[in-house]
Amino acid sequence: MKLEDSELRQTITVAESYKQRVESLSRQVQVLRVSLDEVHLASEALKAFRNAKDDEEIMVPVGATSFITVKVTPNRNVVVDIGSGVSVEKTADSALEYMEANNTEISEALKRTMEALGEAQSALDNLTSAIQQEYTNRQNAVQ
């Protein structure tokens, strides 16, 4: 496949666009994985809280892989951030259901983003290969 100079420049521009898309999608994947880890950690803490007996001590995550020991009281309500800086008080069971719904939503978003990343990476690989082949053909033609 022989490309004219203008076609080669256009192909390089498109490849650069795909490269930026791959980088952006990679960052999104990282953010979604962190979010999924946070939801999992919160869910585990909520399960421990829900299942604990009154006056029992449990470890509660406070972020940055750090935990504190707390004594469980009869009050089993949880304050949950539902987005846009809004928090609501929920029962432990309701909070756990909310976390499980978040887990599902984030997992689906991660799956879609990973698929888009794979498609973009494949397109980038194909374009990069075509560009490299054109440069090789041009070098061989000069020799």
Order of helices and strands: HEEEEH
Poorly predicted segments: none
CATH topology call: Helix Hairpins
Give the proportion of residues in helices: 55-70%
| Count of folded domains | 1
What class do helices, strands and sheet pairing give? alpha+beta
In DSSP terms, counting alpha (H) and pi (I) runs of 4 or more, how many helices? 2
Largest sheet: 2 strands, antiparallel
Broad CATH class: Mainly Alpha
Would you mind describing this structure in some detail?
The structure is a single chain. The chain starts with a helix and ends with a helix. Helices cover 69% and strands 18% of the residues. Helix 1 packs antiparallel against helix 2. The mean pLDDT is 93. With 143 residues, the chain is of the alpha+beta class. The chain has a two-stranded antiparallel ribbon with strand order 1-2. It has a two-stranded antiparallel ribbon with strand order 3-4.
Topology, element by element:
Blueprint: H1 5-51, E1 57-63, E2 66-71, E3 77-83, E4 86-91, H2 92-142
Antiparallel strand pairs: 1-2, 3-4
Helix pairs in contact: 1-2
